[in-house]
Every structure is written in C-alpha cells, then in structure tokens.
Design brief:
This protein is mostly beta strands and 277 residues long. It has one domain: Outer membrane phospholipase (ompla), Chain C (Beta Barrel). Helix content is 9%, strand content 47%. It has a twelve-stranded antiparallel beta barrel. A hairpin with a 7-residue loop joins strand 10 and strand 11. The protein is globular, with a radius of gyration of 20 Å. It starts with a helix and ends with a strand.
Amino acid sequence: MKMEKEYSTNTLIQFADGKFGLRAYHPNYAVVSYTDEVPKGDPALEVHSPGDTHYINTEVKFQISLRADYITEWFGFSQMWTGAYTQTSYWQIFIESSPFRETNYKPELFVTVPFYHKMDTIGLKALSFGFKHVSNGQPDANGTRVRPDGPIEGSRSRSWNRLYARAYFQWDSFFAKATLWHRIKEDFATDDNPDILDYYGHGSFELGYIYKKLLASLTLRPSFSSGRVTGELDISYPVPISDNVFFFLQGFSGYGQSLIDYDRRVRQIGFGLSISR
C-alpha cells in the first residue's frame, strides 16, 4: 500500500511540475487513429472513383507540444510567463504517397499566477490568462459560404484567435482545469469560420485522475450557443522498460478535433505511444 501511494505521489508531482520527459505542454504522442467516417482534407482525395487514391478512415495522428517559462516577482507575488507551441498533424500514411491530410498550428502566450496554499479550501492552485492562435496554414479562396455563418465553399483555410482565462485545481490524486475563452472578432468577409464557437465550444473542463503510474484525463468542451458538447479521453501508462515512454490511448467524440473538420461530428479512437503527458 505504501509503494502504491509513493507511485501516485511521484506521478502527481511530475504532472504538476511538467517534468514528463521533455519540457512538454500538452502530450507529445503518435497514435494510429481510426475515425467512424472518412475524414476531410484535400477535396481531390475525399471523393473517388474505383481504383483512385483516396482518404481512408485509418491514419497516424501525432502531436508535438513544447513550452518555455520565465518567472518574475512583480507586484509582490510570483508570475510564470509561458510561450508554448503545439502542432497536431493527421498523416494518411497508409495510402499512396502518404500525404498529410491536415496540420494545425497552435502558438500561445500566457501568464500563470500560483496561489500556493492560500486557496486550499477549494483546491485552487493557480490562474492563467493567455492568448492563443490556431490555424491550418491553408490558402483561402473567394466564394459563397456553405452556411450563412459557415466556411467559404472551396476554401480549405481555417483559423481563429482567442483570449482565455484558466483555473487549476487539485484534490489529492484528482486535478482539474476550467477554461473560458473569448474569440477575437474578425471581419466577416475574410473570416474562415464565423460559427466555430457553435461547434468547438466556449470553454473546456478537464478532469484528471492519477492512480499509481496511470494518468487518465477527460476533457469536455460545451458550446453555450448551440448546446453541442465534445469529449476527449486520454489514458497513459509507462511501458515496461521505461518510465519516460508511455502507452497512450485516446478517444474522441464531437467537433473540432481538427480545424478542417470543426463543423463535422467525428468519433475517433487511437492507440500508440507518448513521450510526455
């Protein structure tokens, strides 16, 4: 029993300190992923005639996510300033030429104010305030919109910017992150996805649990305007030969897994390895 408690405590400390392998931000992983429908991307590969190369349900999804921190002591209390970059790619490795179907680029800047033990009565550990940009790096195109507030027909470009506030909580082996964001308004004529909040949501709530060396995390993203809710479950556990490489299981159901699919309901399951969590 004592050994199990030590494993849980060590895992909790590593997670809180961001010391899983690399100086990671979000998990760094690669999984073989299966979706319930053929995913979107290059229109030429979405539909096909018999014998043509086309997208399939199975692909490799991988993510690289790193952060750099700088600590200051302004106004009589500590702040941690962070620059982070996350890149999530969807690679159709099992078809001819193995094209990348979609890559999403997510740089962000934020400041975190820790509360130490001052708010332990409710488990609040820190607050963060930040800015995040998300885009898929695709060219835009002129045309009509597929919906009055939807993307422009024929354009693969997707992007948006947001400001957010996040609260971090911890109760023994449970931790939580509650985030609300505000989309920075763009000119409608050039907006790639005016209705993205109706699908992606207005915030997120992540609940995590640590048991010995296992880490499980469930993230929910509700849209207050449309009532849609998206969920993602990540489970990781060290491989037998290393405590710094992990089996990684991911399940997803909802909207916004990738920008090109933001307005399409996707159900996905993936299994692979991660080098941080």
